[in-house]
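In this supplementary section we document a worked example of the pipeline. Step one takes a protein sequence of length 391 as its only input; no multiple sequence alignment statistics are reported here. Step two produces a three-dimensional model, which step three serialises into structure tokens for compact storage. The input and output of this example are shown verbatim.
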Amino acid sequence: MNKVRSVFALAIAFVLIGSSASATLKPTEIPLVFEKLLNSPTLSNPAMIVIDGSTGETIYEKNINAQRKPASVMKVLTAAMVLQYLDPLKVYTTEVRITPETNTLYIKGSLDPWIGTTHSVARKMNRASLTHMASNATNAVRSYNAGELVDYTVVYSDLFEQDVKNFKKYWADHGFKPIFKAEKADLLFNETAIPVVTETSPPVAKILDWMMLWSDNQLAERLARLSSKAAGEPFGILGVEKIFKKLLADLQIDSSKLVVKDASGLSKSNKVTAKMIGELLYKLRIDPRFAGLYPVLPVSGISGTLNERFIDTAPSAVGLVRAKTGSLNGTATLAGYVESSDREYVFVTLADQIPRGYTSLKKARAAIDKILGRIAAPNIPAEISPLPSGI
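The serialised model returned by step three reads:
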């Protein structure tokens, strides 16, 4: 159904190409028009910046130094952190073994951020299945104990706390309540431990793709912590904050107004400025180290969290915006890139003072879409006819 809708959306966009190209604002026209549009009560005095992607020149600005809630736009920082510190080809493996002589199960993890709790979903996406591992482990226990689930100890390493809780819950629901003991990975297995099952999740690049496309909060938190660890910082939010600020400093971006409470944007205490995120997006776009960001951003009217946006609100912009969405109660944000005829703009809109409730959020999103629709236009290379022979 989404594919049909996407094709239909693209068809609308191409039908409107001629009219949208002629109506597209020129850079010099943007400030006056945007100022009028952004004064709408619907957006309640937002912060916004528009940057020419080819020159880095600021075309339009409003409240760009004000501290605002980023919501899930915070994930742009997380994605940059992942691209900087994690190997995109790295995969995560979790192995289960058993030593029946000592009634011990071993789970040797690798801090896999994408272990699935629903087996059918995990299999569909080639993710590690916690259900499959837990089920195989209980079958192994029964096979060595005449079909009974006797008292056991589970010794584990490198599992996220929530995954440990999920193992406990699964087993408790199936009448198995082992004692859990954390251990260092290099001390986990002994020579007599018998392999039970091994599960592997997709590489980091695929996980990042999903995280950005669908704004997965848990993945954002886990990938940020893995990145912090890879960078040699603490495995927690303090390490994440330190790396966020280091990343901005390395790109010569002022981070003095950055407040980090999480890596996903769920906290209303997170703070950024439109200028900070705009400069970040501009520099990520031109730096080869971060080339993996642009392809994983949702596309207007086509994919991810933007798959239903712009189709009705600004159809001429369908397929021309790549951006990270964000929403909290009272907050609507969008930040990314918009194609505009002969250039690309970087934009950031942080509307975090709108009325609470879904109706206000929907209206704010529509207003943001319509504003971007004023500058979105496809880049269509001019066709040059070949010269007649003999000239």
